[in-house]
Amino acid sequence: MAEGKKGFFGRLVEGLQKTRDNIVSGMDSIFSGFSAIDDDFYEEIEETLIMGDLGIQTTMKIVEDLRAQVKEKRIKEPAECKALLMESMKRQMDLGENAYEFEHRRSVVLVIGVNGVGKTTSVGKLAGQLKDQGKKVVLAAADTFRAAAIEQLTEWARRAGVEIIAQQEGSDPAAVVYDAVAAAKARDADVLICDTAGRLHNKKNLMEELRKIDRIITREYPDAYRETLVVLDGTTGQNALSQARQFMEVADVTGIILTKLDGTAKGGIAVAIQSELGIPVKYIGIGEKIDDLQKFDADAFIKALFV
Fold it and tell me: How many C-beta neighbours within 10 Å does residue 282 have?
């Protein structure tokens, strides 16, 4: 396990290379180039963080926190601010104690996200990891409108060695969830993961669909613990943030899966999402393999950024 973690950290470091080039090379020249901590120093830090796609709001919070720390600790040397900055960024990403509560309860996990973000792939990877923990997992192929989504999820179910409940393409997603809930209960499954559609361009339809699914789960499986994860593409930076906001309007979002962090210059979005929305990034994806989706670790993430 430790080796897998190390392997993932190594891949995370590689994946964040472009973000690191954006943020850290700029930071290093600030810490070494300034002889005093003044307004210009803080302005340079602000600019560099915004370039790394942390966004204005998050950047302001981090810099304000940094200013307070510098004052409180009476720091005089710019170089000493690096560790403080890393700590400040970490503080923006508090997962909370019960981030993965669904793993320890009889639960239903809804996964939503627009086409192309890696949603179905993330569902498959999550199912595989839960199965490896000894959990009994059932998948619901409730993204019935996207061509090939059902086939794709069926292949992931086969690979992960879990059961899948599916109907024909174009069928009612809520009906699929109804069947899947019945199957999960009959088979005494630990976790039911529902791959649901995310047609944000037609928010009214999506809202209706999610309400219908929610009613079915509430009625048929009232004692199940509920988790709703939104999958976002890390390469889209601030667009991912606005997508998350829109999904929050239509669903009770409890966490984020941030995919495609390998090779993007916009990795700072992981900090911005948690800081601005108050919703934790629970998983990050950095590749195609089943173990390329991992639980988010703020320490490892910041370390990988500043390595």
Answer: 21
In angstroms, what is the C-alpha Rg of the chain?
A: 21
* Its pTM surpasses 0.85: yes
Instruction: Assess contact for 165 and 180: CB atoms under 8 A.
Output: yes
Beta bridge partners of 139: 164, 193
End-to-end CA distance of the chain: 22
- Helix, strand, coil abundance in the chain, percent, nearest 5: 60, 15, 30
- The token duo for 281 is 């990034």
Quick: pLDDT tens for 124-151: 999 999 999 999 999 999 999 887 899 9
Domains of the chain: 2-91 (1.20.120.140), 101-306 (3.40.50.300)
- Check residue 280 and give its pLDDT: 92
DSSP 82-125: HHHHHHHHHHTT---TTTTGGGGSSEEEEEE--TTSSHHHHHHH
| Each residue's pLDDT tens digit, 211-240 | 999 999 999 999 999 999 999 998 888 899
SS3 294: strand
**Which stretches of the chain are assigned E, i.e. beta strand?**
107-112, 137-142, 163-165, 191-196, 225-233, 255-259, 281-285, 293-295
SS3 258: strand
